[in-house]
Structure formats: C-alpha cells, structure tokens
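Researcher: Quick sanity check before group meeting.
Model: Go ahead. Protein one:
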Amino acid sequence: MSMLSMLRLVLALSVLSCALVTSSAQTCRNQTFSNRVFTTCRDLPQLTAYLHWTYDQASGKLEIAFKHAGITSTNRWVAWAINPRNTLDPAMIGAQALVAIPQSNGSPRAYTSSIANTATQLEEGNISYPVEGLSATYQNNEVTIFATLTLPNGTTSLVHVWQDGPLSGSTPQEHSHETSHQNSKETLNLLSGSSTQATGNSRLKRRNTHGVLNAVSWGILMPTGAIIARYLKVFKSADPAWFYLHVTCQASAYIVGVSGFGTGLKLGSDSKGVQYDTHRTIGIILFCLGTLQVFALFLRLNKDHKYRVYWNAYHHFVGYATIGLSIANVFKGFNTLENYVGDRYDSWRNAYIGIIGALGAIAVLLEAYTWIIVLKRRKSENKMSHGANGVNGYGSRPQQV
C-alpha cells in the first residue's frame, strides 16, 4: 500500500471516528448525572433535548431529568411540561410546566407554571401535580431540570411538550414558531419508552382551512353579492341578470360558509379548555342569519304585492347585519390565529384589508354613480310628464280669455 493510500485511509478512519464520537455524544444513553440514575431515557425529536425518567406506577412517582442543549445565553428560558388533557393539538394549552431560567451565577431559577393560554409569560404558580425536589443546572450550554412528580393512579402514558424562548429582563417571552418548536411535543409511554409524535401540525392546517373558507364566503362573497344587488339593478339592461348573479353569489357564500362553520365547530370540540367565545358566538349568529336569508328567498313576494315593502326591509336589514358581522368576525379570526401562532398571519390580514378596502371603494364610486343616474332619470321622467300633461296637468294649455 502506498503512503498516499495509507494517509487517505487514516484520514477516513479519523473522520468516521469523529462522526461516531459526535453521534454517541448526542444520545441520552451516554449522559450521566451525579448521584442520580434513571431507568429509561429518550432522545427527543426536536430542539436537541433529552428526557430521563424513573416511573413507579404503583405510587405514581415520576422522577425526571430534562436536558436541553444549545442554550448558549443566560437570556433564554427552558421548560418541560405535561398536558393533563392528553391532547397534542394544542399541547401547550393547559400544560403544567417546569421552568428554568439560567442565571449569571450558573444556578438557574426553577419554578412551576400552569399555562392557561397562548399569551402566557410563564408566570410562577402551582400546578396540578405534586412536585418534589425541583431544581435545575446550567453547564456547558445545557440546562437540566430535575423534579419528582406524582401522577394520578393508573397513568401509563402522557402528553409532554418542551420549549425554549427569549427573555425580556427576567420575563419569558413568546417562543419561536419554527417547525422544530411547533413539533416539540409527543405522547410518551412511561412503561415502554415508546412515543407517538405529532405528524405535522394538522390542527393548524384545519385552522387555516377554517379561516380561508370563512374569509372567502362570509367576508368576501357576501359583500360582493350585496354590491351586485344594490348597484347593477339600477341599469335596466342588467335586469334580470343582476338578480341571478346576486343569488348565485350569496348562495355560494352560504354553502362555503356552512362548510367553514362546520370546521369551526369541529375545531371547538377538539379544543377542550380553549375558548374563543366571541368569535364562536358571532359565527353561530352568522349561520342563523344566513339561513334566514335562504328561507327569505323562498318567501320572496312579487314586486307589486302590498307586503313587498316589509319583505324588502327585512331582507335588507338581515343582509347588511350579516355583512357587518361577517367582516368583524373575520378580523376576530385573525386575532385568534395571532394568539395561536404569533404575527405570521399579518400578510393574510393585510390582504383581506386590501380586498375589503377595494370593495368599499368600488361601493362608494358606484353609490355616487348610481345616484347620478337615478337623479337624471327622475329629471327626465319629470320633464316627460310635464310635457305630456301640460301646465295644468290635463294635456292642454289654458285658453286665453
């Protein structure tokens, strides 16, 4: 073997050994703790984190060590939490957290926090599990949280979530919404060590679907249908096309809107403990008003019917109320998404503002234009009436006496 070949072989073996050492250094099985030994450990799939635990099912005692690597600054918080609702979507709401905040002296502050909503700043407070021996360490850019929790009798698995985020002073701020943070959750079998991970953010996709369906139907098609009915019918050449366009637009909005309403109900039923009461209430009112409008179409009276004026008043009042509430609820929905995932939907909100602004501008221009047409038409009709009937209204001028 030549010297060059030997050098290549040595270099390859060196690279391989370095890779193996690096790989082995990143597994929980090579991690040890002074005066603590755990029966099971798991390399968590996100955020370079590891969980070690010993579980006594008879007593419900769960002793854990949660290690999070890559914390290069004391200006970050770290948390590990159990969600007693046993749901992955969303796993954060209702989670009972153990929080550690590194300090400059190397001894992190460790405390418990119950997460009630997405706007939490991880305020210190009691959690629903008895906790003993809560402490934390910060060494070699790694935060480790130690604790013993007492779980309810018969617990064999749990949903847990782990995160890290920035600090403002000593106050935890919102964590990142990158994929690694969104998927830092799983269902863990405490006995076997196996887990079920979240396969993508299916709940967020359903939220997106719900938002798009309702924004397009109630928030865009409904106002467009109203504009068609109010302004196109002024043009005699557009009759009866405007009516069929109006019905088509509003019927499409209702059908798509009912689909969006159904996805909203499903999201609500899957979100135990998460309440968006105002958004939900307005959505139910919109569904009822939209349904009333559909029934009103079947009860539409002839133009010359003596009660048609009352039908018109009802139809217009319910229609405009529906449009106003629809637009308000679309923005309420954007606020809901913002609470869930931060400001990533600002572009959606801005796009909707642009669309509604454009429809509003079109409505203002058409309002002015149609009034001009109506006033000219009335003036022309008055002239014709005046010329046909004469000064005294009987078709002839008064005779000279």
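Researcher: Fine. The other one?
Model: Protein two, sequence then structure:
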Amino acid sequence: MSDFRRKKLLHVFNVFFDVNHSGTIEKKDFELAIERIRKTRGWKESDPKYSETKDILLKVWDGLQQKADANKDGQVSHEEWVSMWNDYAKNPEKALEWQNRYMNFMFDLEDSSGDGSIDEEEFKSLCVSYGLNPQDSAEAYNKFTSNKTVDITREVFAGLWKQFFASEDPNAPGNYIFGKVPL
C-alpha cells in the first residue's frame, strides 16, 4: 500500500471515526457521532430519524468490529483499520454489508435536502461539522464533481467511494469525498 493511500485511510479514521481522538475506534466513538448528528440536525431523542441513525451506526460499529478488530480488544487500531481497507481494495465489488450500509448512510447524511444529489453546501456543511476547513471542503467538492459538472447521485457517490478506499491514483476524483486529505 502506498503512503498516499495510507494517509487517505487514516484521514477518515481520525476525522470521521475516532470521534473522541483516543487513537482507536470503539463503540463510544459511534455513540458520540450519533449525538453529534442528532444535535447538528436538531433532532429530539424521540425523533424517528434519530432512532434510525442510531440503529444504522450501531450496526456499522458491529460490522466494523467483527471485520477489523483482529485482536478482539473492543477497539480498532490504525493498523487494523488499514489492513481491513487493504482487504477491501482487493475486490471492492464484494464490499461487506456494513461497508455498504456506511456508504449509504454517508450519502444520506450529506444529501440533507433528500433530493437524491449532494450539492456543495450540503457537502461543506457536513465537512465543517467534522472540523474540516470550509475552503478546503469547497476545493474538494470541485475536485470530485469536476468543477461542478458531475451530479453526485447515490450511484456516482458509490463509484467515488470505491475510488477513495481502493485507488492508489492521487488524481482520482474519489480521493476528495471525505474533504481535502492533508498530505
């Protein structure tokens, strides 16, 4: 695996998964992410969208832990994370159920209007909520939409997702779907 691809994978690990910045991914990170999303969206705990989000993300955690937690310590380390995605890259068409669930969840989270497409404001809003720079997020959006000429539907997003996790090509547009990766 190239250093470039490793940096991409660790960017997602550190920004989107290791919410409490402990250096590992554990169930607590998912619980914190669920609360962050609930507050960002203004949902009450009784809101069905909150319950749905909680259900999806806890299933994602279960799948991630089963696949990546090689030493069964209840945490996913950097090395376990990278190794799991390296296995994915060998055959991205055979993604695990939790990986597809997370991909669809991220699309739905970004498509906050529910119109079936991710626009720049939706993308930037999500990135900023995870602490990324708005200007870098706008630049990333331009990269994966070919300067806004590509409509980011679920199908297009799925192709970009595969590029992000499997491609060694630094010029692949999918490299930017999680914001600008610091290299």
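Researcher: One line on it for the slide.
Model: Residues 14 and 21 are 7 Å apart (CA to CA).
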